Structure formats: C-alpha cells, structure tokens
Amino acid sequence: MDITELTVHELQDKLKKKELTVTQITKAYVDRINEKEKDVQAFVTVLTDEAMKQAQDIEEKINRGENKGEFEGIPIGIKDNMCTKGVKTTCSSKMLENFVSPYDATVIEKLNNENLINLGKLNMDEFAMGGSTEHSYFHNTFNPWNLNKVPGGSSGGSAAAVAANLVPWSLGSDTGGSIRQPASFCGVVGLKPTYGLVSRYGLVAFASSLDQIGPITKDVYDSAMLLNIIAGHDERDTTSANIEKKDYVKALKNDVKGLKIGIPKEFYGEGVEPDVEAKLKEAIEKYKELGAEVEEFSLDVAEYSLAAYYIVACAEASSNLGRFDGVRYTYRPKEVNGLWDLYKKARSEAFGDEVKRRIILGTYVLSSGYYDAYYKKAQKVRTLVMKEFDKAFEKYDVIITPTSPTVAFDIGGKIDDPLSMYKSDICTVSVNIAGLPGISIPCGVDSKGMPIGMQIIGNKFQEETILNAAYTYEQATKFRENYKPKC
Amino acid sequence: MQVSKEELLHIANLAKLELKDSEVEDYLKNLDNILEFSKIINNASTENLDITIGANEAKNVFRKDEVKVFEDNEDLLQNAPVKENNMFKVPKIL
C-alpha cells in the first residue's frame, strides 16, 4: 500500500484501526517529498524535519492515551500567503523573501487546534496574481500530469502538491479562480467557499472584497472535512459571516434526484476546447441519469465579469499593496536618497512584473478622470452580475460550467501575453464577483490525458448543495480510480 | 493608444514605482490591451443600479475598542530590514 495515495478519510480509518501510525503517515510524505519535489517543485518552504518531530510528539501523546481530535497527526500543506508564526510567509515575492509572521492566520490557528502537521508552504503566483504559478519569484511549479505544463494558478503549488501526493490535502486562496483553476489543471478537487464563510485574518490581502480561503483535496469527502475545520465566524475579519456552524460531511447524501441544474449556454461553445466541452456534456448526461433535472439557460455575465474583475481586483490590489514600502517587511534597497526614493526603489526592485502591471492598472482606474468610467462602472456591473445570479438561483439549485475553457497549457505559453492569461479566468471570476461558492471536480481527461475540471456553482452559503452534487457525481464516476498523474 | 507615455509615468509615480525606459513600451502595450478589453463593460446596462463595494451586504461591524498589548516585540522587529534600539529605522526625511 502506498500511504500517500490515500485520501484523508482513508488515513483516518487506518489510524482508527491502528493499521497505520501518525509517524508512518508523516514519514511516507517526507519520503515522497524527498523523491518527487525536485520534479514538481510545489514548495517554497519545506518543513519535513519539523513535521517528523511533531508527528513523534503526537504519537507519544496518543500512546499515553491523550489523543482527542479526529485530525490529530494528519499532514497538510499551506499556500504561502497565509501567515504562519515562526515560519516564512513569502507570497512567492522577493518583497517578502525573509518575512516571518509574528502571528498565525485564523485558518492556521484552526489547523493547529486540531493538531494537523504542516509539511510546508506552497508555491504560488506572486501575491496570488496569475493563473500559472509562473509569476513566482522563486521558481515554477510543474504539473504532475505532464511536467511541461503549468499547474495553473495562483494556488499552483497547493494543487500540484495534492495531485503528486506530496501532501494529502492543502489550503489555497481564490480571488478570481485561484483554487478552482489549478484544481482543474491538476485533476483534484478545489472549493472556493462563499465570501465570508472562512476568515481572511492573516491571509495576505490581494483584493479584499474577492479573496477567500478554501480546501484543495483528493476527493469531495476530504473537501467537506477540511471546510468543517476552517469555516466559522471570526471577529478579527469584519467581513466574516456570523452564521450557524454546519457539518458539511453530513451534506454528502450521494443523491441528486430532483436537483435542478442550470447550464448557462454562454459558458460553452466559442473559446472552450472541444474536449473540455465534450466531457462537460458527458457529465451533464450523467447527472440526468442520476435523476437531476437539467435545463439550459442564458447567463450573459462571463465577459462583463472578467472585465469588472480585473478593474476591481487591481484597484483593491493597488491599495492593499501600498503597505509594502521597504520599511516594515524585510526588503530594503541598498542605497536610497530619502524616503520617497526608498519607497520607489523598494517597490520597483522587489515586485515582479505582473504585480507592477496590476498596481499600475489599479492606480489608473482609481485616478481622477477615469474613476467613474472604469471603477464605478465595474462596481455597478458587479451589482448586475449578482442580480443575474439571484435570478438564476430562483430556478436552479446549482449551475454547472467548465472550470477553465482549456486544460493546462505549456509552461511559457501565455507568459508574454497577460490578456490571454487573464482570459483563462473567464469561467471562474463571476463567482468571486458575486461572492458565491464554487467547486471544481475532475470530469475526465482530454485526448492527451490532461485532466478537465467541472465547476459547480451554488447560491450563497449553499456549500452543502454543491458538495453533495459534486460527491454524487464523483461516486458515480470514480475519476481517481481511472486516471492518475504520471508523476 | 489610450494611454500616453507621460500618463503611464505619472500613474507609476503615484503608485511609487519606477519604470525603466526598456520596460515602458511593454507596460504601455499591456495596459492598452487590458483597457481596450475592459471597454466591454460599457455594453452592460447598469442604469438605476447601485454600486457594489463588497460581496457581503454592507453593514457596520462594531466591536469594543479595547487595547490589546502585543507582547512579542522581537517577533515584529525580526522583519525590520534596518532597526535601532527596538525600532524600525528609516532614512532621514527632513
């Protein structure tokens, strides 16, 4: 048995039956990282020594009969934009190359309360800006299904690490598709929760009104379990939703009879790769077989959302990234001529091209003369998109689209054409614009064996509905049993 | 071109960024492409619609204004690129 092939719920079963120990599990992942990380390069910071030490401590505790939590001793990997006390949090940027957070993000506190073991911090596009992880200051991450392809982004390290069995599950963050698109490219499950369900405290901000943390996992059951751990109100995040705590695992009924599924026709056709479209159609047929009611409808928001997204996200980023001034966050240029020069040199030397591009775009759309035409108009478009989704959810329980119009593209394929990179977010951004939950699950592979993702969108705080829809499809099709990454 | 070189440099200056001469052309081209694409939002009919600032319904979130002392000064200062006597040091500004 290869321990690293197992899902977290399978690991839990084996721990319970005493077929495996906590140190055996962590050791299996440490060995796997030592063997495969050189090919995949999913990590910025590897914490294998610390993880082994922690596993031994937990095992001793368990042997003394002090074991309490059901997740005690389960390893995890964390996207490198969530603050972890005592461990570097770099956002894959030169600006934060040596930054060590003095506190833990709320999600990290929650993982620590359950005694999960952090295997390391995972690579990403710098400050979560990008769709391929090629904008990391440190190195590329490679897609475990084909090492010449990107893993997607910005949570590319988080998705590639799960796909390559370097971690059993991970946390990513999603501002315009950054959990779902890499999950799709790497053949794993990625959930972006409703805005406000998971605290953003300690998540380095990119676009505060869109950012959300969520799980990347091998299967839907694990996704529901990890959401159980991280969801919940937090007074340190004023946008955190104060709603009743739910058990998302209980929502997995393996039954979609009578589920009303809307298929927005604008998300199919032009620009969508034929193999992607074909697999989505097959998946939709499968839902019909399983007893769901499927109907095509018009939801003409994809392109408006994409344009509004880049305006709003860049505007917010230009403000959020103002704090990186060369004074407080580790990077300081060598010779400066006064304070203004310090700011300019620090930012020009330590931000990458894509980050600068977005700060400039954001500053432009917020500047006098352009504010109304771009920023204010984009905020109104946001209202429009929300209203269109509201209308759709009067008729349907879930909406199904491709997660990405394409499978994973070649490394270097889009790096010189930012607009074409932005357009690969076309199916995912409207979900962030409207603050909705969305999950990407694999629904097959293309003719070259690269995984294809299906996105299931739900109404606000209806994670139970999309998780059950995803779970039911997954149980009926068993993607993981039929397809495996090469790496 | 929607954006002139002067305008780009002005915006970069506002954002406290310095662009090298060799970078200016690329930034201009990319900014122009993205702004051109963004014009599509003008086709969206948003008459009588309010703006949306956040994904949550706008409301004030209050908490008690209580002082909480953060004890780990050293943890904070380890991120100071230059420090002196337990403080972040900056260049002379006057």
Would you give the CATH topology of the domain at 3-255 in chain A? Amidase signature (AS) enzymes
Quick one: which chains have the greatest interface? A-B, 68 and 51 residues
Give the structural class of chain A.
alpha/beta
- Structural class of chain B, by secondary structure, is mainly alpha
Hey, roughly how much beta strand do the residues of chain B contain?
under 5%
Oligomer: heterodimer
What form of chain A results from the Cα inertia axes? globular
User: Residue-averaged pLDDT of chain A, rounded?
Assistant: 96
Report on this model:
Chain A is α/β, with parallel strands linked by helices. Chain A has a domain at 3-255: Amidase signature (AS) domain (Amidase signature (AS) enzymes, Alpha-Beta Complex), CATH 3.90.1300. Chain A is 40% helix and 13% strand. Chain A has helices at residues 8-16, 22-40, 48-63, 106-113, 156-163, 180-186, 220-230, 274-289, 302-320, 339-350, 353-366, 371-395, 418-423, 429-434, 463-477, 479-482; strands at residues 43-46, 75-79, 117-122, 169-174, 189-192, 212-217, 260-264, 293-297, 398-402, 438-445, 451-458. In chain A, strands 1-3-2-4-6-5-10-11-9-7-8 form an eleven-stranded mixed beta sheet, sandwiched between helices. In chain A, α2 (22-40) runs antiparallel to α3 and α9 (302-320) crosses α12. Chain A is globular, with a radius of gyration of 21 Å. Chain B has 94 residues and is mainly alpha-helical. Chain B has a domain at 5-42. In chain B, 35% of the residues lie in helices and 4% in strands. Chain B contains three helices and two strands; from the N terminus they run αααββ. Chain B has helices at 5-14, 21-38, 73-77, and strands at 83-84, 87-88. A two-stranded antiparallel sheet of chain B has the order 1-2. In chain B, a hairpin with a 2-residue loop joins β1 and β2 (87-88). Chain B is flat. The two termini of chain B are 40 Å apart. The model of chain B has no long low-confidence stretch (mean pLDDT 90). Chains A and B meet through α9, α10, α11, α12 and α13 of A and α1 and α2 of B.
